[in-house]
């Protein structure tokens, strides 16, 4: 699949095949995608623990499943617990040294680059490191990593769904995570039971309301030809709900033995 198609068809898959295990190698590929994402100062504060429903300790499963929309976690063969490790910021100087040595920052010869780094950039960052552990930029970077993992999952034929949890501390404790770590969210992973379209393209706010040119007075001009091109490339798909969606939802509800309306 082309990236445009993966982007266009990437949507939350809530209904997965409970009987079909996810290969550990595919989870590894998701983690590999997350690992190479960009991060400010190359700090790399994103962490993930893949909880396999069939092999995780009972205590971990209990902590992970006991929440709103817990049915999604119960049916998913794998749930990834994504969290941010702010202490990664403490090693930022070393990360900057690595990235500068690799030729990814600055210009001129290696010696000049390293000298400027030690004398200018690292002292500049030293003063802001504690503040940089607060929620903000690290979370943005974690989001980029998770987005890459998500696209990898879709390219591998998997479906995923992000789920918030009020039980961050309990889950992290059960996983053996210590320090200032903050749980971001859980991501279920499995083979889709619903169609890849999952009911159709989800509604989004108007483009012009979200994006602008030069100042917020001018909505970013949206060229219809570009929209048409992206539609032809498989990026834009039919808006939901597709005509068969209600039947599909009833079908998956019966197949999975779910009760109620599934919203809580
Ligand atoms: C960070 C994040 C957290 C989310 N948390 C929840 C959640 O707690 N419960 C839930 O049902 N859906 C959750 N979702 C899924 C969103 O409801 C979903 O992304 C949205 O409806 C748009 O659908 P789409 O992902 O298919 O584009 C979350 C999504 C993201 C990105």
Structure description:
- This protein has 264 residues and is an alpha+beta fold.
- The protein has a domain at 3-85 and 143-192: NADH Oxidase.
- The chain contains 11 helices and 6 strands.
- The protein has helices at residues 3-9, 24-35, 58-65, 70-75, 92-101, 110-126, 137-155, 168-175, 207-210, 224-232, 245-256, and strands at 46-52, 78-84, 159-163, 182-190, 212-213, 215-219.
- It has a 4-stranded antiparallel β-sheet with strand order 1-2-4-3, with helices on both faces. It has a two-stranded antiparallel sheet with strand order 5-6.
- Strand 5 and strand 6 (215-219) form a beta hairpin.
- Helix 2 crosses helix 7 (137-155), helix 3 packs antiparallel against helix 8 and helix 5 packs antiparallel against helix 6.
- The protein binds flavin mononucleotide.
- Flavin mononucleotide (FMN) binds at residues 11-12, 69, 162-164, 185, 202.
């Amino acid at each position: 699949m082309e990236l445009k198609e993966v982007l266009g068809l990437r949507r939350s898959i809530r209904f997965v095949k409970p009987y079909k295990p996810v290969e550990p190698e595919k989870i590894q590929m998701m983690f590999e995608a997350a690992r190479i994402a960009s991060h400010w100062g190359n700090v790399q504060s994103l962490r993930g623990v893949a909880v396999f429903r069939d092999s995780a300790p009972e205590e971990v499963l209990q902590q992970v499943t006991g929440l709103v929309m817990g049915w999604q976690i119960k049916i998913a063969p794998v749930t990834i617990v994504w969290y941010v490790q702010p202490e990664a910021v403490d090693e930022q100087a070393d990360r900057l040294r690595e990235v500068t040595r690799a030729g990814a920052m600055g210009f001129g010869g290696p010696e000049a680059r390293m000298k400027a780094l030690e004398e200018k950039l690292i002292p500049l960052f030293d003063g802001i490191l504690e503040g940089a552990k607060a929620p903000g930029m690290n979370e943005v970077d974690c989001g980029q990593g998770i987005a890459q993992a998500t696209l990898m999952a879709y390219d591998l034929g998997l479906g995923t769904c992000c789920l918030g949890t009020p039980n961050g501390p309990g889950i992290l404790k059960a996983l053996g995570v210590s320090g200032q770590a903050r749980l971001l969210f859980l991501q279920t992973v499995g083979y889709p039971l619903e169609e890849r379209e999952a009911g159709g393209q989800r509604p989004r706010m108007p483009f012009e309301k979200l994006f602008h040119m030069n100042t917020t007075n001018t909505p970013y001009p949206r060229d219809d030809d570009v929209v048409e091109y992206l539609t032809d490339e498989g990026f834009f798909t039919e808006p939901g709900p597709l005509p068969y969606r209600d039947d599909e939802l009833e079908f998956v509800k019966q197949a999975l033995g779910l009760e109620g309306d599934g919203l809580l």
